[in-house]
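Box 3.1 A note on notation
Throughout this textbook, protein chains are presented in two layers. The first layer is the amino acid sequence; the second is a token string describing backbone geometry. Keep the layers aligned when reading.
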Amino acid sequence: MSGLGIYVHWPYCSAICPYCDFNVYRAGRGDNAPLLAAIEADLAGHAARFGRREVASVFFGGGTPSLLQGQEIARLLEAARQAFGLTPDCEVTLEANPEDGALFAEQAQAGVNRFSIGVQALEDPALKALGRKHNAAAALEAVSAACATHKRVSLDLIYAREGQSVDAWRRELEQALSLPVEHLSLYQLTIEPGTAFARRLERQQMQAVDDELAAALYEVTQIIAAAAGFEAYEISNHARSRVARSVHNLIYWQGGDWIGVGPGAHGRITSHRRRIATQAQARPGDYIDAVAEHGVGWISEAALTAQEAADELLLLGLRISEGLDRARYAAFAGRDLDGGALDWLRRCALVDFDDARVWLTPKGRILANKVATELSFASS
């Protein structure tokens, strides 16, 4: 299993996308120094609370952390190094918007060795509908800028967009797969409550893709990516090789530990045989105040129950191609998965399993959450 991860949430964006339900705020002209100092102190506070462990992955997410200058990223990485220590091959990922491509070189020099670029679409009308500030040409320029740093490059794309056909998505995906990148995160558009898209849907100003078309788009995604040599090592993530897989996301999916710092960040730490869930204050000002007062930015710290920890591992572990580690599930839950439920799900062609692992079939991947719910209910 992967080592300790650090997730750094940078909450500011130059614009809020209509599909986004993350903890984000419109970037102003304010000074970044107070929030940077709070994140540095929060890292030290986590180390004091949970002890020093070498870090295998640092992930700058958001928000739009590619708004940060190289020297600001270097400052936060040095704080992580001082608080915990970084492994020699520590993966440092930066979520990046294409319009920030001019900063990629200095960000790479600061220590970023993996760019995750939010391309989202390669068609201008679709980008406009998604509320993105860049166009397709700018997206391709950003990919070139990231590749010029000689660091790892991943692209995010969204499918099942309003009005999108299977043929149009096939062409778009084939274009993305032809680019000199080694990882693609291919997400089906989900309309989350509270977003601008959800309000438009309620007002009948847009239409969601129906389940049948969504399934067809998912299936063609798997076929085309596999044909191009990109293995679906997770339901939505495809890598050209094992070394191109996201170390940080594997920490999540395998039930590993990660520190969450920055406004609204979540963390999971195993301490004294307990699975601790942390959540930081959401508003930047409240977060800065919490760190100043308590040494950490938490709004809450709670020990998950055995079943809560097991259910979380089940939901995430089923998503990866290797499947759920049954021994780790049993360590959390205090018992193995229900054998009758496993047999029934296998007869339904939704899962397969052996003594060590349970994994989804291609049919089961489309119904991953329902399978996890069935196993959780039967095993609790």
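The two ends are 25 Å apart (CA to CA). The chain has two domains: 4-251, 307-379.
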